[in-house]
Write a structure and sequence with these properties.
Length: 279
């Protein structure tokens, strides 16, 4: 006797419903979303939108948020989040607006002045250098004489060459780190961080907790630690995982184009009024 399986294909309409939510931080954004009976994925989306303007490692009790978003549903059953349309985040005594706007068939988030919420990284931490070793999971270490991953990019440059931070951020480590030698690690936002290794010395004022700006000198090329010659070992991390610095697509920092600005202002004013009306 054979079992028979019958498959029926049923097409359902996916509906988009505009929802609003507001909350106040007591411990974490995740918990605040849960307390407001919203999907935790909304917290992830919100943190990504503001990743370049708000350090979510430093949010504190009393910070607040309001969000307008599209929710997807089938037969009145929620199936997920589509997009955040507008948001307001009050952090460290300052309000931050975010509005989704599409131009030239590409959408992004902008502030109330039409500036992109994203900030571009410098292409490289050195102005004059050459790549002497690439990102790889299989490289022969010249000192240890073993095969091991090299999860960064080596820039060969003369000793004393200035090393620049590729973006704004906070120094979370500055000191001697064994084989890495003199090392500076910078957290740029809740997603990205960078590390600069084998330095000869640190830049002026570079210490744990120091705030740095894009292009600021954070150290000078050297050969400290396990190093055979003067170079910078530069590493890039996304959510704590190393990624190839040469393949990072630096987010655009361009504002709303002039030809679309009047359309943006109308949308911004509508969404801002809705956000301001949320209790």
């Amino acid at each position: 006797m054979r079992d028979s399986v019958h498959i029926h294909y049923i097409q359902r309409n996916v509906d988009k419903n505009i929802k609003t939510i507001s909350g106040e931080i007591t411990s974490s954004l995740w918990n605040a979303m849960t307390n407001a009976k919203a999907s935790p994925s909304l917290a992830v989306e919100l943190s990504e939108i503001y990743a370049w303007t708000i350090d979510f490692y430093s949010i504190q009790p009393g910070d607040k948020f309001k969000v307008i978003y599209e929710e997807l549903s089938v037969d009145n059953e929620t199936i997920g989040l589509d997009r955040i349309l507008g948001a307001w985040f009050y952090h460290a005594g300052k309000p931050y607006y975010a509005f989704y706007f599409a131009q030239d068939d590409a959408g992004d988030y902008f502030d109330d002045l039409g500036q992109s919420l994203k900030r571009a990284f410098l292409k490289a931490p050195l102005k004059f250098s050459r790549i002497s070793s690439n990102f790889t999971y299989h490289r022969f270490h010249p000192i240890l004489r073993i095969m091991r991953p090299h999860l960064g990019v080596d820039y060969a440059a003369p000793r004393g060459t200035s090393v620049h931070s590729i973006g704004n951020g906070t120094v979370i480590s500055a000191g001697f780190a064994g084989g890495a030698g003199r090392m500076v690690k910078i957290r740029h936002n809740a997603v990205y961080s960078t590390t600069y290794m084998h330095l000869a010395k640190f830049g002026s004022g570079i210490r744990n907790g120091a705030h740095v700006t894009q292009g600021q000198v954070i150290g000078y090329v050297g050969s400290s630690g396990l190093s055979t010659g003067s170079h910078l070992d530069f590493r890039f991390y996304k959510n704590g995982k190393p990624i190839n610095p040469l393949k990072v697509e630096s987010p655009p920092a361009k504002p709303v184009k002039k030809e679309y600005y009047s359309d943006y202002v109308r949308l911004r004013d509508k969404l801002r009024h809705q956000l301001d009306s949320i209790k």
